[in-house]
Amino acid sequence: MANMTSHIHCQNCSMAALCLPYQLDQDGMARLDTIIQRHKPIHKRDVLVNAGESLKCLYAVRSGSLKSYTIDDNGVEQIIDFHLPGDVIGFDALANSQHRSYTQALETAMLCEIPMSSLDELAEQMPGLRRQMWRLMSGEIYSSKQLLGTLNNRSAQQRLAHFLITLADRFKERGLSNRSFRLTMTRADIGNYLGLSVETISRILSALQAEGVIDVQNKLVNVLEPERLRELAQ
Hints:
By secondary structure, the chain is of the alpha+beta class. The protein is 40% helix and 23% strand.
């Protein structure tokens, strides 16, 4: 994942175009930067927020990756999202000021902590910031609907191919390789997210490798035939 040091500010962060500073001028970025607190790194399996906690901050991912999940009354976990650098965590809590899901680090991650009280006040003064918040929330809603469509209407192979090509596209957006990347989530996590068993995930990965579409070495995925993978996702 992207590696950034703790002193980086909005003005020189490579993820700014995907995050809250998008389309803000230098003055706007500087004003936003004054309210942001640089969060200490959290480590693999550390929980960032718990479901039911009051919304105090949004969190922008600077480096590393995390997963968000819910737990039902029977204690069954359901993964609902994977977060990469540039993503903002916490929008699900805006409706009732309570987090609706848990968020846990998949690896060491650096975050920017954005206090909601300060962000609300600043957004009132900066329409561009408010529009970007709406844009990011709209993107989350679209992604959720896209996931539902993937789960409801596609075969197991289509689901996994869609997951891999979407992940590759997200890496490309972040200036990272979309042809070779590391999966920070486990196969059990991927299966949980897609509604598939670990055995099914492993079988399909092996089949895609045998067909020369991808090459998998432990957690490293090399996309050998990206257009073929995209076709399989349809």
